[in-house]
Design goal:
6-stranded mixed β-sheet, 56% helix, alpha+beta
C-alpha cells in the first residue's frame, strides 16, 4: 500500500502543463484514433499496445463528448485541456508499475523461497527515484517493465515444469512486452536460457526451499519435444506481438518506415548526443547502483539459487548490452530491467538474512539470556542489512531532483511570463521551456540546432531551458558551431528574469531589459 501511494500521488503533478517529451505524442495518438473511429494509430515509432489500452479507457468519454487534443509549443512543453483524462491514463501506468513490483516480488520469492526476498524487492523499487518518477507518465517504459517481469516469472516456470502451456504463456508474454516497447522483446532471452538450463543432472540441493511442489519439480531431459516447445514459444511471441501491433501486418510498409526511422534515430543519435553509449548505461548502473550490482551477483554463485538467478540476470545483461550499442540514450530506457535487478538483490538479501540467523543461533545448552541476546543481535543485523541495501538503491541517483514535487524554476517562470509580459508579444521558446500560452502570445519554437540572430530579429522575448542547450555545453568541442549559435542568440538579448534549480535552469530574456545576458554554459549542470 505505501508503494501504491508513492506512485499515485504524482499523477496530477504539474497538470494541466505536460513537460514529459513523450506524453503529448502518446496522448494525441490515442485521441486521433478515437477521433477518426479507427484502430490505425498512424504512428508506429512505438508499438501500439499502449495506444489500444489508452483508447479503451478514453472511449466512454469520447462517446459522451469530444476528447480534446493536447496543445504543444515545443518538445517537452505542452498543455492538456482535459487534465483529468491525462491523470486517469497516468493512473493506468501506476497500475502497471504496481504490477511490475508484485511480479518482481514473486520472482524473488519463488527463486529464494523467502518472503524476506519479496519484501526487500518491493522496498527497493518503492524507494527508487527512477521507478517513482517514470511510474506515472504516458510512456512505454513502465508497461515494458511490467510485461518483461511477467515474462521472467514465466521463464522460471518453464525451467521448473516446462510443459507446452508454460512455453506458450512465456512466449506470449514476451511478445506483449515487445508490443509495449520494441527492445523489451529481448526478455525472450530468458525463455531460451531457461530451456537451456533444463538438465536432468540437477540435484535436489539445487532446488530452492519453498515447498514440496518446488522440490518435486525436476527439469526434464532436453529432447526433440523440448525444442518443439521452444519453437512454439517463439510462435506465441510473434502472434502476441501482432495482436498488440496489428498494423505490422496490415500495413507493413508504413509500420516498417516508422520502425526504420526509430532505428536510424537510435543509431545516429540526435543533435547534442555523445559519440557512443557503450559505457553510458553500464556507467549509469555502476554510478547509481554499484553496491546493488555487487549484491545482485551473489545469487549467481550460490548453488541453491544460481540457475534460476541466471535466468533473471540474462535479461539484465542482454538488455543492457543491446541498448548500449546505440548513441541515443535516455536513463529511463533501463527501467524495464530494474524489477529484475531488484529481484536479484532481494534474493541475495534473503540469503544473507538466513546466514545471519544461523550464525547468531546458539546451541540449546546456552543460557536463555544468551539466546535472547543473540536473537536481538540477529534482528538488528538483519534490519541494518535491509536499510543499507535500500539506501544503496535510492540515494546515489540524481533523479531525486526530477522526482521532487512541482514548484521548480519552470513553474515560477511560467507564472512570471503570464504576469509580466504584455499580450501579443512575439516569443521564441526552446524545447523543454515552460508553457507560454499561444492564445496570449505569438509563440515560435527554436529548432534544436538553434537559430541565427537575424532569424531572431523582430522577436520580443526569448525563453530558454538549460535542458535543451546544456547538451552542447557538455561537449563544447564537438558541438562548437551549435553552441556558438546559441551563445550568439542569447547575447543578442538581455536578461529579464532567471529561474535556477538543481534540475532546471530557465532564462527569460528580452531586448528591452538592462541586465546583460550571462554566458549560457556558466555553471551548467543539466542532464541529458
Amino acid at each position: 500500500m505505501p508503494i501504491a501511494v508513492l506512485f499515485s500521488l504524482a499523477v496530477w503533478r504539474e497538470l494541466p502543463y505536460v513537460y514529459h517529451a513523450d506524453e503529448w505524442r502518446t496522448y494525441n495518438t490515442t485521441v486521433g484514433m478515437l477521433d477518426r473511429g479507427s484502430f490505425d494509430p498512424e504512428f508506429f515509432r512505438y508499438p501500439t499496445l499502449m495506444f489500444y489500452l489508452h483508447a479503451l479507457v478514453l472511449a466512454p468519454f469520447e462517446w459522451f463528448g469530444d476528447v480534446e487534443y493536447m496543445q504543444r509549443i515545443s518538445l517537452g512543453s505542452a498543455y492538456a485541456p482535459s487534465p483529468g483524462l491525462v491523470a486517469l491514463l497516468r493512473a493506468v501506468t501506476v497500475v502497471f508499475a504496481l504490477g511490475a513490483v508484485a511480479l518482481a516480488m514473486s520472482i524473488s520469492r519463488r527463486v529464494s523461497g523467502s518472503s524476506v526476498a519479496a519484501w526487500t524487492t518491493a522496498a527497493l523499487l518503492g524507494v527508487s527515484p527512477m521507478v517513482i518518477e517514470h511510474s506515472r507518465y504516458l510512456a512505454t517504459d513502465t508497461y515494458a517493465a511490467m510485461l518483461s517481469s511477467a515474462t521472467v516469472a514465466a521463464a522460471i516456470v518453464v525451467f521448473r515444469r516446462g510443459n507446452l502451456r508454460d512455453y506458450l504463456i512465456a512466449g506470449a508474454l514476451a511478445g506483449l512486452a515487445g508490443g509495449a516497447k520494441y527492445n523489451a522483446v529481448l526478455v525472450a532471452l530468458t525463455i531460451v536460457v531457461a530451456h537451456g538450463l533444463r538438465q536432468p543432472s540437477r540435484v535436489d540441493s539445487d532446488t530452492p526451499v519453498g515447498g514440496p511442489a518446488e522440490v518435486a519439480a525436476r527439469p526434464k531431459p532436453i529432447s526433440v519435444q523440448g525444442f518443439a516447445s521452444l519453437a512454439a514459444s517463439g510462435a506465441a511471441a510473434i502472434v502476441a506481438f501482432i495482436v498488440s501491433t496489428p498494423y505490422a501486418v496490415l500495413s507493413t510498409d508504413r509500420w516498417w518506415d516508422d520502425v526504420s526511422f526509430e532505428m536510424r534515430h537510435y543509431s545516429t543519435g540526435h543533435l547534442g548526443t555523445g559519440e557512443s553509449s557503450v559505457f553510458h548505461y553500464v556507467g549509469l548502473l555502476w554510478d547509481t547502483y554499484a553496491v546493488v550490482l555487487l549484491i545482485a551477483a551473489v545469487p549467481l554463485i550460490v548453488r541453491r539459487t544460481r540457475r534460476e538467478a541466471a535466468i533473471v540476470a540474462s535479461f539484465v545483461v542482454g538488455y543492457v548490452g543491446f541498448v548500449s550499442r546505440y548513441p541515443l540514450r535516455f536513463d529511463r530506457t533501463i527501467l524495464p530491467i530494474l524489477p529484475a535487478l531488484a529481484a536479484l538483490v532481494g534474493i541475495a538479501v534473503a540469503l544473507a538474512w538466513d546466514a545471519l540467523g544461523r550464525r547468531d543461533a546458539p546451541g540449546t545448552s546456552e543460557p536463555s539470556t544468551v539466546v535472547a541476546g543473540a536473537s536481538r543481535r540477529a534482528r538488528w543485523l538483519r534490519l541494518a542489512l535491509v536499510v543499507a541495501v535500500a539506501a544503496a538503491f535510492a540515494v546515489p541517483y540524481d533523479g531525486w531532483e526530477s522526482a521532487r514535487p512541482a514548484g521548480d524554476g519552470r513553474s515560477e517562470a511560467r507564472e512570471w511570463i503570464a504576469d509580466n509580459l504584455e499580450p501579443g508579444s512575439r516569443i521564441l521558446v526552446s524545447n523543454y521551456a515552460p508553457w507560454v500560452d499561444p492564445e496570449d502570445y505569438a509563440v515560435e519554437a527554436i529548432p534544436r540546432r538553434g537559430i541565427s540572430t537575424d532569424e531572431a530579429a523582430g522577436f520580443d522575448y526569448l525563453v530558454l531551458a538549460r535542458e535543451e542547450y546544456g547538451r552542447f555545453c557538455r561537449n563544447p568541442k564537438r558541438f562548437a558551431a551549435e553552441l556558438a549559435r546559441w551563445e550568439a542568440l542569447a547575447s543578442s538579448f538581455s536578461t529579464a528574469a532567471e529561474f535556477d534549480t538543481p534540475s532546471r535552469y530557465v532564462v527569460l530574456a528580452t531586448s528591452a531589459a538592462a541586465q546583460p545576458s550571462p554566458p549560457l554554459c556558466a555553471s551548467d549542470a543539466s542532464s541529458e
